[in-house]
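Human:
Take a look at this sequence-structure pair and walk me through the tokens.
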Amino acid sequence: MPEISDTLQNNSIAIRELAKDEGYTLAEIKHKAIDWGINLAIAVAVLIVGMMIAKRVTKMISKLLTKKEYDKSLQGFLVSMVSISLRILVVLTALGQLGVEMTSFIALIGAAGLAIGMAFSGTLGNFAGGVMILIFRPYKVDDLIEAQGETGIVKEVQIFNTILLTLDNKTIIIPNGPLANGNITNYTMQKIRRVDFTVGIAYGDDLAKAKAILQKFVDEDEKILKDPEPFIGLVELADSSVNIALRTWCKTEDYWDVYFKMNERIYNEFDQEGLNIPFPQMDLHVHNIAE
């Protein structure tokens, strides 16, 4: 095998000449080669093991989000973000093991991230708001909410916007940033709601009779809950009327049925029972002044 022997001899001569030129001894070069080989082996091990751990952590997070029943679009985003972040961390760790200086690289990434964040501050705010809404769920699809001066039924919760359908069938698109940072009234989150009425009768009408009739209306309406117990009481002696407060409870989906039915019965049946529903009026007295 004279060719192989010649090749090894030539390589040995080349290494000796390189060591002489660089000021290293052959032993130092061998030592450095061993160190570099060890670091390379460690870097490869870090890369392989790190990728395995990143994959397992990603699967665990995906299962956790699925178990918590988070929105599917949010699940996909969070899982992807965690997976990419872990993989980048593993690669940077492996490169650092090889002696690659990462400080400048990390600073460059930070500067680029800051510039992008400033350029898209409004969009990123809406994105962050969408993530918070999808995680904490102050409302969900088909809820009736009031927010940012608008009232409507939630039709879709996107990562940047929430789409409402108003009661008169208008579509409203609200950015998630202001929604996440503002007040939200959710009318359908709770299973039951209280329905409040203020019923006015004329001065001189029978208060006990009016309360008995209202109690009859309550008892006859199957959609009004008996627990919590309804309340009927005198709430105000107004200028033109004696006002009675009627407070009842019902299932959230029955709210408007109870509200409209009670108002109709009060209007139609109070008069039949001899009870007057007053309206604002003024007595005018004219006096003759003798000249």
User: Anything to note?
Assistant: The mean pLDDT is 82.
